């Protein structure tokens, strides 16, 4: 895997049919992202940010163009292969933490690790390691309802890390958090991503966070305006 060509997006378009009309969500986008980069994507509502993130994360597929992550060509994968790609390579972090309420913090984290076939003693130590990395070493037995919003978001981050992801996709992660906790959360994501060598692609409306990015990508009407 070459360091520079980690993620290569070439001439990607996505068009949604809405009755008689078409919505061009992505209009011929090309973009290269290096391994370990911390990218922030900004732009008005409806400019295509989530669509782009979903396509890179293997949640959605483009109508045209090519998407390569590491040595994998996502655009040639079938649904089963895309599921495998997401499970093995991508950590997701969204505004609503989507923790399972009936499972403890540790159990929530271990589910993600089990999916990539980590077992036994390694599974236990992996869970402990990533919970420690997000500062929750002593909260593994807590249920989501016993954790603050910021702590829940950190469990979700630990869950994303448990598979040692090549890529962490983050869409509006700080919506539920106050200004200071939100920034701390992004600083934590940046720190652990660099520890684990993960590339981060993050969508946010919070322009006070832009200084944390290695690169800011600005979108408008389905296009990349400037970097
Ligand atoms: N499933 C869909 N069907 C039809 N149109 C869609 C669908 N998903 C997204 N769109 C349209 O595609 C465009 C881009 O949407 P997208 O969700 O990528 O925007 P966004 O930049 O993430 O916006 P926001 O900041 O509000 O989250 C919008 O015009 C949206 O209405
Ligand atoms: Mg969005």
Explain what the structure shows.
This protein is of the alpha/beta class. It has one domain: P-loop containing nucleotide triphosphate hydrolases (Rossmann fold). It has six helices and ten strands; from the N terminus they run βββαββαβαααβαβββ. Strands 6-7-8-3-9-10 form a six-stranded mixed beta sheet, with helices on both faces. Strands 2-1-4-5 form a four-stranded antiparallel beta sheet, covered by helices on one side. Strand 4 and strand 5 form a beta hairpin. The longest helix is centred in the last third of the chain and has 18 residues, at 179-196. It is globular. The model has no long low-confidence stretch (mean pLDDT 91). It binds adenosine-5'-triphosphate and magnesium ion. Magnesium ion binds at residues 49-50.
How do the strands of the widest beta sheet line up side by side?
6-7-8-3-9-10
Strand content: 25-35%
By CATH, the topology is Rossmann fold
CATH homologous superfamily heading: P-loop containing nucleotide triphosphate hydrolases
Give the tally of β-strands: 10
Features:
four-stranded antiparallel beta sheet; binds adenosine-5'-triphosphate; Rossmann fold; six-stranded mixed beta sheet; 10 strands; 28% strand; binds magnesium ion; alpha/beta; 227 residues
Question: What is the element layout, followed by pairings?
Answer:
Blueprint (H helix, E strand, L loop, with lengths): L6 E12 L2 E13 L4 E5 L6 H8 L7 E6 L2 E2 L5 H11 E5 L10 H11 L4 H14 L15 H13 L5 E5 L7 H18 L2 E5 L11 E6 L2 E4 L1
Parallel strand pairs: 3-8, 3-9, 6-7, 7-8
Antiparallel strand pairs: 1-2, 1-4, 4-5, 9-10
Helix pairs in contact: 3-4, 3-5, 4-5, 5-6
The structure holds adenosine-5'-triphosphate and magnesium ion (MG).
């Amino acid at each position: 895997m070459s360091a520079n060509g980690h993620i290569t997006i070439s001439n990607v378009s996505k068009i949604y049919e809405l009755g008689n009309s078409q919505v061009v969500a992505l209009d011929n986008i090309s973009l290269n992202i290096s391994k370990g980069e911390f990218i922030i994507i900004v732009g008005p509502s409806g400019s295509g940010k989530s669509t782009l993130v979903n396509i890179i994360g293997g949640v959605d597929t483009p109508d045209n163009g090519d998407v390569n992550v590491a040595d994998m060509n996502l655009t040639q994968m079938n649904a089963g292969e895309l599921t495998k790609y997401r499970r093995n390579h991508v950590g997701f972090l969204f505004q609503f933490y989507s923790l399972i309420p009936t499972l403890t913090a540790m159990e929530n984290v271990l589910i993600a690790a089990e999916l990539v076939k980590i077992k036994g003693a390694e599974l236990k130590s992996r869970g402990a390691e990533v919970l420690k990395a997000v500062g929750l070493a002593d909260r593994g037995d807590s249920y989501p309802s016993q954790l603050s919003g910021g702590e829940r978001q950190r469990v979700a981050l630990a869950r994303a890390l448990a598979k040692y992801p090549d890529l962490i996709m983050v869409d509006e992660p700080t919506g539920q958090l106050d200004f200071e906790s939100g920034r701390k959360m992004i600083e934590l994501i940046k720190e652990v991503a660099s520890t684990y060598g993960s590339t981060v692609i993050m969508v946010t409306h919070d322009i006070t966070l832009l200084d944390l990015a290695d690169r800011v990508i600005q979108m408008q009407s389905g296009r990349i305006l400037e970097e």
